[in-house]
Design a protein that fits this description.
Cathepsin D, subunit A, domain 1, six-stranded mixed beta barrel, three-stranded antiparallel sheet
Amino acid sequence: MSAPVANDVVSFKDRATADQAKPHNDLLVIEMTIQDIDVSRVLVDTGCTANIIYKSTLERMDIDLCAVTDRPSPIFGLSGKATMSLGSIDLVVKAGSITKITEFLVIDRPTSYNAIVGTPWLNSMRAIPSIFHLCLKFPTPCVVETIQGNRRMSQVCFAAKLKRKNLGIETSHKKKRKLTLDENAPERDSEVFWQSQRAEALEWKREPTCEPVNSICLDESSPERCVEIGANLR
């Protein structure tokens, strides 16, 4: 059994992280060339079983969306919620000196990233990412090539994602509060109605039960023979 040649060995050295501030928990965000266009903010995600590119990214790249195959399929996140893709598209991806035709699922939703490369692309490249070293390495016929992650861009993407998440939570709370108020509206309207009814009843009780009484004498010779007349006289 022959020993592996040097260009088959992928290794990481701790001194490669000497210039990085510690501790760091940044995601691995790299730049790739897709369809001869340098695309930044590409997330390397070993937990994703598909390569993903966003509709907004394709539009900025002036790629005709007619190239997207009309085969929608669900994508499930860690939360278990499904996101439907618009279909898939084959794009030419160049990483270092290696060029491959890669299938991407197309997603139409807000995002901090332009694309995500998951296990299909990583396996086809025989690539090994290291979050600790913030880089991606893969063997080629000549050498082991390295794509360094962009820590600043990773932080920018994370901050944008966090801001959008907080905005979504705030909006959700406002909608929930509005919905709660709307649900209580009939109850409040009923309460106001009965308060109004009670007020009118009390007001009616405070009113005189009869009009002013007029006394009319029937016989002037007998002043005691008088009657009292009134519309509400009881």
